[in-house]
Design a protein that fits this description.
single chain; 520 residues; mainly alpha; 5 strands; 66% helix; globular
C-alpha cells in the first residue's frame, strides 16, 4: 500500500512539472519587450557582438541552444523560450537530488514542484531572456558541487563541477559570485588529502582545468569578434559603461544604499519574486513559517537526524549572500529578475525544513502508523499543498496575462503608426524595440538636451514628440525643458512584466526659438 501511494505521489508531481512546462509553452510571450530581449532575438538569426546581437558578454551557450532549436522552430522568439522551458524542466532533477539527501525522494520531488511553480520564475521562462536558462544551469552546478564534495578524490566529479560552472558563466556571467562554492570545494578537497605533494599538484591541475573550461566559450567569443584586441576593447567599453553610465549599479545611481537594500529585498525579492504580488501567497507563506516555527519549538530537545548537510548549507548561504551583495552594488535594482536566482535556493531550504519538521513531528509522536499523523505535521503538509496549488493558479493567471497584454512600448508604436502628419519621435531605450518592430516613421534615440534643441530649431516643419524618459533626462540638463512640452498620451502595462518601461507618457514639443538656456 505504501509503495502504491509512493508511486502515485511521484507520478502526480511529475504531472505537475509537465503541466508547468506545457502551460509555459502554450502561453509563451510573443512580445519582445525590452532592449535586452531584442538583442537576444536578433542574435538567434545573426550572432554579432559589435552590433549588440546580443550585448556583451555574448551569452554563447544560451544563444547556441536557441540556434539549435531554431533549426526546427522558425520564430527566434519561440526558439529562445523553448530552450528556456527545456532547461527549466531539466532543473527539476538537480533540485530533487539535492533535497533527497535531506528529506527523501517523495518529499524532494514535491519540493522541486514548489520551486518550479514559483510564479515569477515561471514568467521568466516564457520570455526570450537568459535568466531562466541561467537559473536552471545554476541548479545543475550547485548539485555538481555537492556531488563532488561526497568524493573529494574523484577527478570526474570535480571535472563535472568545473564544466558546469563554465556553462553557467557562458549563459549568465553575472552569476559569478556562485563560483565561491567552487573555491570552497577546492579548499575542502585540498584539506581532505594527506599527501602534501599530491594535493598541491591536484589543486594546480584543478585551477588550470577551471581556466581551460572558461576559455572554451571565451575563445569562441574572441573568434567571433575577429581579434583578441577587438574583443578586449569591446569588453572594456561594456564594463566601463555598465559601472559608470547605464548599468544601474551604486556607482552611477543617486539612490541611497539603504533605499536600494529595502527595494531589493522587500519590494523585489519578497513582494515580486516570492509572493508575485499575490496576497493569498503572502498569507500562506506566513502561515507555513508560523507552523514550521511552532513545530520546531515542539521538537526542542528531540534528537534529530544527523543527516543534515551542514557544510554544503554553509557554502550555499555564503554564495547567496555574496550574490545579493553583488546585485545590491553592481546591478540595476529596478529589475526584479536580477535578484531572482536567490529565491529558488532559499525556497528549497524552506520547503525542506518544513517537510523535515513535519516528518520529525510524526516520528517524535510515534503516530506513524498508516494515516495517523501529528496535527501540526498535518497542518504543515496542508499549508505546503496550498502554497503549491496557489502558486500554480497565480502563475497560470500571470502567464496568460503576460502573453495577452501589449507592452507599453507596443502601444506607443500603434499610436504613432496611426498618425498621418509628418513627425519625429525622440526616445531613449524604446527605440531599440521600435527598430525591431520595423516602425514606419522616424524615431531617434536622444540623450543630450542641447543637441535635441539644435535639431528642433533646424529641422523640417514637422511635429516633434518625445517620451517621458527623454524628458526626465532633459530636465536634469535644463530645468526649463518641462515648460516646452504638453502631454499627449499615456501607455500602461503591468510593471511586473515591464519594470522600467511599463508606463510611457508621450509629450509633444512646443518649444520656441526664445527658449532660454540655463548657464552653469
Amino acid at each position: 500500500m505504501h509503495r502504491l501511494v509512493r508511486r502515485i505521489s511521484i507520478s502526480a508531481a511529475i504531472i505537475a512539472l509537465l503541466f508547468i512546462f506545457c502551460f509555459n509553452l502554450f502561453f509563451s510571450s510573443t512580445f519582445v519587450r525590452s532592449w535586452d530581449e531584442v538583442d537576444f532575438v536578433l542574435a538567434v538569426d545573426r550572432y554579432d557582438l559589435l552590433a549588440m546581437q546580443p550585448h556583451f558578454p555574448g551569452y554563447p551557450y544560451f544563444i547556441a541552444g536557441a540556434k539549435l532549436v531554431h533549426e526546427w522552430v522558425t520564430d527566434p522568439v519561440q526558439s529562445l523560450i523553448i530552450w528556456n522551458a527545456m532547461l527549466a524542466l531539466s532543473a527539476a532533477f538537480p533540485i530533487t537530488l539535492l533535497a533527497r539527501r535531506y528529506i527523501g525522494l517523495v518529499p524532494a520531488v514535491w519540493a522541486a514542484v514548489g520551486v518550479q511553480s514559483l510564479p515569477y520564475l515561471w514568467l521568466m521562462g516564457s520570455r526570450p531572456m537568459s535568466e531562466c536558462a541561467g537559473i536552471a544551469v545554476l541548479w545543475w552546478y550547485l548539485w555538481s558541487v555537492r556531488w563532488a564534495a561526497d568524493r573529494p578524490k574523484s577527478n570526474a566529479r570535480l571535472g563535472t563541477a568545473l564544466l558546469l560552472f563554465s556553462v553557467l558563466m557562458g549563459i549568465r556571467l553575472s552569476y559569478f559570485p556562485f563560483g565561491i562554492a567552487l573555491v570552497l570545494l577546492l579548499v575542502f578537497q585540498f584539506t581532505s588529502l594527506t599527501d602534501s605533494r599530491n594535493r598541491l599538484r591536484r589543486l594546480v591541475m584543478a585551477i588550470a582545468a577551471a581556466g581551460g573550461a572558461q576559455l572554451i566559450w571565451i575563445g569562441g567569443l574572441i573568434q567571433s569578434e575577429g581579434t583578441l584586441q577587438g574583443f578586449w576593447k569591446l569588453s572594456l567599453a561594456f564594463v566601463s559603461g555598465h559601472f559608470s553610465e547605464w548599468g544601474g549599479g551604486v556607482a552611477d545611481s543617486k539612490v541611497p544604499l539603504g533605499t536600494r537594500f529595502v527595494t531589493l529585498i522587500a519590494d523585489h525579492l519578497i513582494r515580486d519574486v516570492w509572493f508575485s504580488r499575490s496576497s493569498a501567497l503572502a498569507v500562506l507563506y506566513l502561515l507555513l513559517l508560523a507552523l514550521m516555527g511552532f513545530g520546531m519549538w515542539r521538537l526542542r530537545g528531540y534528537i534529530r537526524d544527523a543527516t543534515a548537510d551542514r557544510k554544503f548549507g554553509k557554502w550555499l548561504w555564503v554564495c547567496l549572500a555574496a550574490y545579493g551583495v553583488w546585485v545590491l552594488l553592481g546591478q540595476n535594482i529596478e529589475k526584479p529578475r536580477h535578484i531572482a536566482p536567490i529565491a529558488g535556493p532559499m525556497l528549497l531550504v524552506l520547503y525542506a525544513a518544513a517537510l523535515k519538521t513535519a516528518a520529525l513531528l510524526n516520528r517524535a509522536s510515534g503516530d506513524i502508523r498508516r494515516w495517523k499523523w501529528d496535527k501540526t505535521a498535518a497542518a504543515i503538509y496542508l499549508a505546503l499543498a496550498a502554497v503549491i496549488a496557489v502558486q500554480i493558479a497565480v502563475g497560470a493567471q500571470l502567464l496568460k496575462l503576460q502573453a495577452e497584454q501589449k507592452p507599453a512600448v507596443y502601444q506607443l508604436n500603434d499610436y504613432m503608426e496611426a498618425l498621418n502628419q509628418p513627425f519625429v519621435l525622440y526616445t531613449w531605450e524604446e527605440t531599440r524595440v521600435l527598430r525591431y518592430l520595423k516602425a514606419g516613421y522616424e524615431h531617434r534615440k536622444i540623450l543630450t538636451f542641447d543637441y535635441f534643441h539644435s535639431l528642433s530649431q533646424t529641422g523640417a516643419r514637422q511635429r516633434i514628440f518625445l517620451t517621458d524618459h527623454v524628458l526626465n533626462g532633459f530636465l536634469q540638463q535644463n530645468a526649463n525643458a518641462g515648460s516646452q512640452v504638453i502631454p499627449v498620451a499615456k501607455f500602461v502595462s503591468d510593471d511586473l512584466f515591464d519594470p522600467v518601461y511599463s508606463r510611457i507618457t508621450l509629450y509633444e514639443w512646443i518649444g520656441s526659438n526664445e527658449l532660454q538656456m540655463e548657464k552653469e
